[in-house]
Amino acid sequence: MSTKERSRAREFARLGVWSAYPARTRPAHGPERWLPATVAAVALLGVWLAATRGDLVPDAFLPDAFAVWDRLVVWTGNGTIWRYLWPTVVAALIGSAIAVVASLVLGILIAHSRLLGAVIEPFVAFSQAIPLVAIAPLLALWIGYGMVPIAVLCALVAFFPMVTTTVVGFRSLDMRMVENAWLDGAGFRARLWHVELPVAAPAILAGIRAGFVLSMTGAIVGEFVIGGAGLGTLLTISREATDTVGVFAVLVWIAAVALVLQGIIQAAEHISVRRLQGETT
């Protein structure tokens, strides 16, 4: 690599465009973290406005952005959106909590037992090969209607990334640390709590973050198929009424909720990793 190429590579790395070292591309903190996404969102909004105001796309396919905003304001003001929002969020949170417990237990078993891993892992992969729209009617048949089958569907969606990253985190452990703890007389519980979990925490929590966001998808699909009182139901009502503005308003709310959930889980992930790894008191 020439001197000019090295200089260009360093400049790209400084600007965050491209780096040869993935460890140096972790998200920044503060305004620098959100500025690129904000600029991209403003650019997309500009393209949206240009397409609708310039009559490039019929309103039946892409409504005016200001019409969607007006609908959001009306629904927020009269309480419509809140009435449909909470059932979806509650089902997603319950399902995510179920998935966290199940993925931690199974992830520990798979990572510590080659036999159990050989038995369980194919079924874990199989659970993700079945479409949600095929599972939802079965859950309604087995469990009934209401929030419970929707929460179970959310758990199934969130489970796969959680258990996968848990297994990867445990299998990536430095065996020398585990052996040293073993030689020091630490039992399985002590090694798990004080050595294995803190080191595997970044991978585990990354899967939990992804699972929490995906659980919103499970809730929406569940309300599509099973029925309910959440955002999926409001989306169905708007779709059947050919209300494109309403459909886009619901999609904006779903995206906003997913973004808020990701931000909360990401902040909790950062704090938890630092505490588990002893970086704070």
Word description of this protein:
This protein is 80% helix and 0% strand. The longest helix is centred in the last third of the chain and has 38 residues, at 188-225. It is an all-alpha fold and 281 residues long. It has one domain (65-72, 86-276): MetI-like fold, CATH 1.10.3720.
Terminal Cα separation, in Å? 45 Å
How many domains? The number is 1
Rg from alpha-carbon coordinates: 23 Å
CATH homology superfamily: MetI-like
Would you tell me which CATH topology applies? Answer: MetI-like fold
CATH architecture: Orthogonal Bundle
| Number of helices, where a helix is a run of at least 4 consecutive DSSP H or I residues | 11
Which spans of ≥5 residues are poorly predicted at pLDDT below 50? Answer: none
Family: Belongs to the binding-protein-dependent transport system permease family.
Keywords: Cell membrane, Membrane, Transmembrane, Transmembrane helix, Transport
Transmembrane segments: 34-51, 84-111, 123-144, 150-170, 212-238, 244-265
Protein name: ABC transporter permease
Short description:
It is built from 11 helices and no strands. It is mainly alpha-helical and 281 residues long. One of its GO terms (cellular component) is plasma membrane.
